[in-house]
Amino acid sequence: MNRPEPSFTTQEIKLERRLPSYWRVTFDMPPVNIFGPRHLPQLGDIITAIETDPQLKVVVFDSAVDGFFITHYDFLAPLEDSLQVPPGPTGLQALPDMLVRLSRAPVVSIAAIRGRATGVGSELALASDMRFASREKAILSQWEVGAGLVPGGGPMARLPRLIGRGRALEVLLGADDIHGDLAERYG
Prior knowledge:
Layout: E1 13-19, E2 22-27, H1 39-52, E3 58-63, E4 67-70, H2 79-83, H3 94-104, E5 108-113, E6 115-118, H4 120-127, E7 130-133, E8 139-141, H5 155-163, H6 165-174, E9 178-179, H7 180-186
Parallel strand pairs: 2-3, 3-5, 4-6, 5-7, 6-8
Antiparallel strand pairs: 1-2, 8-9
Helix pairs in contact: 1-3, 5-6
């Protein structure tokens, strides 16, 4: 009988190998699952494992923090902490690199969203093959334009393919919260 390998775990991002073919990645960064520079190497290691394990077929991303999938990037962390993380194998900076690699990985990736998925959370969901969002609790947004920033994790490329150019511009330029029911109608 094949036994699953031990799970990779950090305090904040947990990789559980439930079966050789099925893994679960859980974000646990209370109180609101803000993703920061210290998480980049952790997620990078997980993405590399996803890309290179020949037995893996499905990976599900979820959250242990009630009401939050992943909110956004930690802009209160010193800028040097983010700049010290080298670009990834694609040549892109670490976060966009990981999201591109996830979108190209030879596995089915699923984002299970029960709460706020904004900024990095929305971008991880968009890079996944499938997204399942709670109608009652899911809130998605690309808030960056509302704060005078450019969304850096790929939503300008991925959103138009999912919901069309006009709706993508509405979501990106409006920077509004999109609740689960509306997200479903938008596609």
